[in-house]
Amino acid sequence: MNHQIVPLQPGLYLVATPIGTARDITLRALDVLASAQILVAEDTRSLKKLLAIHGVPLGDRPVWAYHDHSDPGARASIAAEVRAGRSVAYASEAGTPMVSDPGFALARAVVAAGGAVTTAPGPSAVIAALTLAGLPTDRFVFLGFAPARAAARRTLIDGFADTPATLVFYESPRRVHALLADLVACLGPDREAALCRELTKRFEEVQRARLADLVVALAGRTLKGECVVLVGPPTAKEISAESVSDALDTALEAHSVKDAAALVAQRFGVPRKQVYQMALERGRGGAKGDD
């Protein structure tokens, strides 16, 4: 296949790459990879293999590595190339750069140096999992990889327990059982959830169930491949009055009754009128000049 060699403006091009099936790459991504003067990759071997699969000639263009263990000097070198007027394409090992990916620090370095940053969007495990999980997608929170230590992991989960949104986690197959156990402990057994594994690959698997049932279904299994765990939002009865009350107290310190009620109602997905009444009962109606 012939890919279009197009003149690229100087800048950093964040190129999304397939999370599994190689044909999921976009035509624009291939054009950028064929045209950029310098290629940078989280995994240079993976990028070269992808180029070979799609018949994109590398020629004498350099391919630099940039990953979690790269030092600030590597970012500075890439930013300097952009500043000197060159086009640089950066590709994650899989998925969209900047999403649980070292591209974040690289993009910030280029922006700080006055360079342009743009994207060739495409595959993302977060979005792919959301489309398959059967959970609400109108509002979601991406939490990346949960902390490896149990105490920190539970603290993170507790902080989002009342958030009226679908929670999305990345997790390694070695720790997914521990993550699910902590989700049950922090959120209760009845929250709707899903486990997506090996997305877009031959052995793609999606399991949808209550958290407790998901734990039972996966008990004793040795999983392979990166996993995405999704947990649906709490129902109204799962949101404690204490949580709403605490949030309202905090909001009233900086906002009028009307605005505080609106903010808290939106955060917890509860009726604004109900929260407004709670605020009035605190006797703070004139604290911030309600209008």
Key terms for this structure?
disordered C terminus, single chain, 3 domains, five-stranded mixed beta sheet, Cobalt-precorrin-4 Transmethylase, domain 1, alpha/beta, 291 residues, five-stranded parallel beta sheet, Methyltransferase, Cobalt-precorrin-4 Transmethylase, Domain 2
Quantity of strands, as a count: 10
- Major sheet: size, sense and barrel closure? 5 strands, parallel
Q: State the order of secondary-structure elements, H for helix, E for strand.
A: EHEHEHEHEHEHEHEEHEHHH
| Side-by-side strand order of the widest sheet | 3-2-4-1-5
CATH secondary-structure class of the largest domain: Alpha Beta
Rg, alpha carbons: 23 Å
Number of domains: 3
The name of the CATH architecture of the largest domain is 3-Layer(aba) Sandwich
Name given to the CATH homologous superfamily of the largest domain: Tetrapyrrole methylase, N-terminal domain
- Helical amount: 25-40%
Q: Number of helix segments?
A: 11
Q: Indicate the CATH topology of the largest domain.
A: Cobalt-precorrin-4 Transmethylase, domain 1
Class by helix and strand content?
alpha/beta
Uncertain ranges: 284-289
Catalytic activity: cytidine(1402) in 16S rRNA + S-adenosyl-L-methionine = 2'-O-methylcytidine(1402) in 16S rRNA + S-adenosyl-L-homocysteine + H(+)
Domain RsmI HTH: 240-282
GO molecular function: rRNA (cytosine-2'-O-)-methyltransferase activity
Family: Belongs to the methyltransferase superfamily. RsmI family.
